[in-house]
Design a protein that fits this description.
Blueprint: H1 17-21, H2 27-34, E1 38-42, E2 47-49, E3 58-72, E4 75-82, H3 92-95, E5 102-114, H4 116-125, H5 127-146, E6 152-156, H6 161-172, E7 178-181, H7 187-194, E8 204-207, E9 211-214, H8 218-224, E10 236-242, H9 246-257, E11 262-265, H10 292-305, E12 309-311, E13 316-320, E14 326-330, E15 335-343, E16 347-349, H11 357-360, E17 365-366, H12 371-376, E18 381-385, H13 389-398, E19 404-408, H14 420-428, E20 432-435, E21 438-446, E22 448-456, E23 462-465, E24 470-472, E25 476-478, H15 503-509, E26 527-529, H16 541-560
Helix pairs in contact: 4-5, 9-10, 9-16, 13-14
The structure holds flavin-adenine dinucleotide.
C-alpha cells in the first residue's frame, strides 16, 4: 500500500489464497524444519506415500519436485506439484488419518522428512511455522472436500434415510467424498453392476482401495477409513473426555495444550449440537457469525495439534466408577482407563411421541438444518417445530431456499424462548409463517414423508398439508443414560455438580473426601460434568467452552493430589 499517495487504491500485502495453500518457505524456515527431521534423497518416480498408507510422513522439498496425485484406475491425476521450499501434506498430518492420495518424486532430488510426531512437536513449539503449516493443511482439506477428491464414493438415494446419515457423518468428520445419486446419476447403474450390489443395498460406501460397505454404521465407516487406528487404548490417560461437542473439545484443547495426556471419546462426529448450527452469531470473536461445522472443525484440529487423541464413532457405554483409575467401557466391548474424567455428552432433541416418526427420520424428518438438508427442500414448503434459538436459526436459514417455512410452536409466541435478534428476523421475513399453539398430530407417506397433519389447539381443528420436510427442534434430553447412576442426577436426568450437590446427595453417593466437590465436579472425585449435560447449564456454545476450560484447571489439582 502506498500510504503517502491518497490517489493509490488500497492494496493488500496479505498472501493470496494460492500462496496460503502452497507457500514457499524461506531458507531460515526450511533450516528450522531440517533440525527436526532427516534429509533424504529422492529417486525419479519414487513413491514416497501411497493411497491408504497410515502414519504419513511430512516432506519439504529441498531440490527436485514432489507431485501429489490421485490414482484413478491405471492413470494418475495431478493435483499439485511441490517445488523447492514447498511442502507436502494436508489435514491428515494433524489427525493421523490415512493418505488419500499418492506422493511421487517426479525428478531426482532431496527432501527433508519428518515423522508425524516430529511434525506435531514442531507445530507445538514454532509459532511462525505452526501458522503457515496449519493454515495450509486446513485450506488444502477444504479444497479436497470442495472438489470431492478423496478415497470415498457414496452411492445413495434421497428416498433412503441412511444416505443422509452417511453423508452427514463424512461431512462432519471433514472427510471428502464423491456422491452418486441412484435416482439421478447415469453412472449409478454401472457402479451397481460392477460391484454386484443392488439398489436395496443403498447407501453403499466405496471406501479406500477395495472395500464395499452396504448401509454401513458410522462405526464401520470410521473403521474402514482408519479414523481411530493410531490411538493407543491400553495406556492409562491423565484425562478421558466423553463427548466432542464444544465443551469436550474445549477441555481437550486446554488439557492437551497444558501438557495432559488427553483421550476424547465421541459416539458420532465432533462438533455436537453446535456442529449442526447453520450460523452461530453470538460466539465471541466472530462478528459476522460462523457456521457450526467451521467452528468445530477448527476446534477439532486445534485439539489434535496439541496432541489430544480423539476417537470417532466410539461412544461410552458405561463408566466403571467403583475403581481407580476410572474405566470407561465403550460400545463394542473395549475399555479405556483414566485418572480423571470429564463428561461432556451434551443433550439431544426430544423425539415427539408421533406414530411413524422413526420411519421418516432422514426421509422427511430431520433434527438438524444444515446445507445438506436445505438442498433437499429447495422451493418447497417446510415445517420447523420449536420455539427456541435453534428452531429460530433453522427457520431463518431454511427461508433462504424454501418456498415457505411454517414455524409451529405450542406456546402463545416466541418472546419467552427465543433471542430478540432472531424474533425480529422471523417477523421481518415474509417467507416464515409463525403458527402459535399448533402441533403436529400425524405424519404420512410411502417411504418418504408426503403429508403432515397439524392441530390448532385453540379451535381444535386438524389440517392436512402436503409438506415433505419437517425439522424437529424441541426440548433437550441429556445424554446420561450410559452413566447408569454412577453419578448423582437431577430429576430431569442432568448431572449435578459442585454446590448443587446437597449433603444428602453426597452421603448417598458415598463421597469419600473431607473437602466438598469442586465447581463442576460430580458426586465422584475427579469426575467432572460440563456443558449441556450438566444440571443448570446455560445452553450456549460460550458457556460450554468456558466450562470445559474451567474443569481442566480442577483436573490439574486432582492429578497433583
Ligand atoms: C441447531 C442448533 C443451533 C444452536 N445455535 C447456537 C448459537 O447460535 N449460539 C449458542 O451459543 N448456542 C447455540 N446452540 C446451543 C449449543 O450448540 C449447545 O449449547 C452446545 O453445543 C453444548 O455443547 P456440549 O459440548 O455441552 O454438548 P453437545 O454439543 O450436545 O455435544 C455433546 C457431544 O457428546 C457426544 N456424545 C453423546 N453421548 C455420548 C457417549 N455416550 N459417548 C461419547 N460421546 C457422546 C455427542 O455425539 C456430541 O457430539 C445451538 C444448538 C443447536 C442444536
Amino acid at each position: 500500500m502506498n500510504a503517502s499517495d491518497p490517489r493509490q487504491p488500497l492494496a493488500s500485502t496479505a498472501p493470496s489464497r494460492t500462496e496460503q495453500l502452497f507457500p514457499t518457505l524461506t531458507t531460515a524456515q526450511v533450516a528450522r524444519i531440517a533440525g527436526r527431521g532427516r534429509r533424504r534423497a529422492m529417486a525419479r518416480d519414487e513413491v514416497l506415500v501411497d493411497v491408504g498408507d497410515s502414519d504419513v510422513p511430512f516432506f519439504v522439498v529441498v531440490s527436485g519436485e514432489i507431485q501429489a496425485l490421485r490414482p484413478t484406475g491405471a492413470t494418475e491425476l495431478l493435483i499439485v506439484a511441490h517445488g523447492p521450499g514447498q511442502f507436502s501434506g494436508e489435514a491428515n498430518m494433524i489427525t493421523g488419518r490415512r493418505a488419500m492420495g499418492r506422493l511421487r518424486a517426479s525428478e531426482p532430488g532431496e527432501a527433508i522428512e519428518l515423522e508425524r510426531e516430529q511434525l506435531l512437536a514442531l507445530i507445538q513449539t514454532d509459532a511462525e511455522l505452526s501458522e503457515i503449516l496449519m493454515r495450509a493443511f486446513m485450506l488444502r482439506r477444504f479444497e479436497l472436500i470442495a472438489h470431492e477428491f478423496g478415497d470415498v464414493v457414496v452411492l445413495g438415494s434421497t428416498h433412503c434415510a441412511g444416505t443422509l446419515r452417511v453423508k452427514e457423518f463424512l461431512t462432519r468428520n471433514g472427510h471428502p467424498f464423491h456422491y452418486i445419486d441412484l435416482d439421478r446419476d447415469a453412472e449409478a447403474q454401472a457402479l451397481l453392476d460392477q460391484f454386484h450390489v443392488s439398489a436395496a443395498d443403498v447407501p453403499v460406501l466405496f471406501c479406500g482401495v477395495d472395500s464395499v460397505l452396504r448401509n454401513p454404521s458410522n462405526t464401520q465407516i470410521a473403521d474402514c477409513l482408519g479414523f481411530n487406528e493410531l490411538i493407543d487404548q491400553t495406556r492409562v490417560s491423565d484425562l478421558v473426555i466423553v463427548g466432542a461437542g464444544p465443551a469436550g473439545l474445549a477441555a481437550a484443547v486446554y488439557g492437551a495444550s497444558e501438557g495432559l495426556d488427553v483421550l476424547v471419546l465421541e459416539s458420532n462426529s465432533p462438533g455436537g449440537q453446535a456442529g449442526s448450527s447453520s450460523r452461530i452469531e453470538n460466539y465471541l470473536g466472530f462478528p459476522t457469525g460462523i457456521s457450526g461445522v467451521d467452528l468445530t472443525a477448527r476446534a477439532y484440529a486445534q485439539a489434535q495439534k496439541f496432541g489430544a487423541q480423539i476417537m470417532i464413532a466410539k461412544g461410552a457405554a458405561q463408566l466403571a466408577c467403583g475403581r481407580q483409575p476410572y474405566e470407561v467401557q465403550m460400545a463394542g466391548g473395549s475399555s479405556i482407563r483414566a485418572r480423571a474424567v470429564i463428561i461432556a455428552t451434551g443433550a439431544e432433541y426430544r423425539r415427539p411421541a408421533l406414530a411413524n416418526l422413526s420411519r421418516f427420520e432422514g426421509a422427511g424428518v430431520y433434527y438438524t438444518a444444515m446445507p445438506m438438508e436445505a438442498q433437499l427442500c429447495v422451493g418447497e414448503d417446510v415445517i420447523v417445530v420449536g420455539g427456541g434459538n435453534s428452531a429460530g436459526q433453522a427457520a431463518v436459514f431454511l427461508a433462504q431456499t424454501a418456498k415457505r417455512v411454517h414455524m409451529l410452536v405450542r406456546g402463545n409466541g416466541l418472546a419467552e424462548t427465543m433471542s430478540r435478534y432472531l424474533i425480529r428476523r422471523i417477523e421481518d421475513n415474509p417467507a416464515i409463517v409463525l403458527r402459535t399453539r399448533t402441533q403436529i398430530v400425524a405424519l404420512e407417506g410411502n417411504g418418504h414423508l408426503e403429508r403432515v397433519q397439524w392441530r390448532d389447539d385453540r379451535a381444535g381443528d386438524v389440517e392436512a398439508n402436503d409438506i415433505r420436510h419437517v425439522f424437529m427442534m424441541t426440548g433437550a434430553v441429556p445424554n446420561t443414560g450410559w452413566l447408569d447412576r454412577c453419578v448423582v442426577l437431577d430429576d430431569k436426568g442432568f448431572i449435578k455438580t459442585g454446590p448443587e450437590l446437597s449433603h444428602d446427595d453426597l452421603t448417598a453417593a458415598g463421597w469419600p473426601l473431607p473437602r466438598p466437590p469442586f465447581l463442576l465436579e460430580t458426586s465422584r472425585p475427579g469426575v467432572f460434568a460440563v456443558g449441556d449435560v450438566r444440571g443448570g447449564n446455560i445452553k450456549r456454545v460460550a458457556s460450554a467452552v468456558g466450562e470445559g476450560s474451567i474443569a481442566v484447571a480442577f483436573v490439574h489439582q486432582i492429578l497433583q493430589q
